[in-house]
Here is the input.
Amino acid sequence: MIAASIAIPRIVHHLAYSGWQVKTNVKLRGRISDLVAIKDGKICTVEVKASGDIQSSIEQALHLKKAANFSYLAIPDERVDERLIDTCKNLGIGLMTFDDVVKELVKPAQSEPLPSIKWNLLGLKPDRKRVLSPGAKSLGTFIPNKRGNTDHAAVLSES
Here is the structure.
């Protein structure tokens, strides 16, 4: 079985060959992602598991799915079975295997990362707009409520 310390450089090479800029051990959503790759404004995370509990790695990849457009689980080729392939397909997580080469068995479903992650990794600040209070004539005019507080909110603009 190939150790993660050997597998990670192989996966980095595989992603870099496809045009991705790859970083290792990046903190996202309070957890460490083994690999984060960026290409054309898209974010990809890869959770590498050479040995041990695959279930916890599936949970990690699923957690990181909110931080990326694509989320993968990467495991040794000999640990793959049909149940794991079906699980990854059903959860929208990609599945990579590694031995001497890196192979993509399941393509991940594309999702939209959280705006804060896009801001941190891509430098794309979330586009915000103010919501006018009922009866307000312009931005900056707030209508006091019954307790004297002003009603105001910020929401993300629709893309």
Q: What stands out?
A: The radius of gyration is 21 Å.
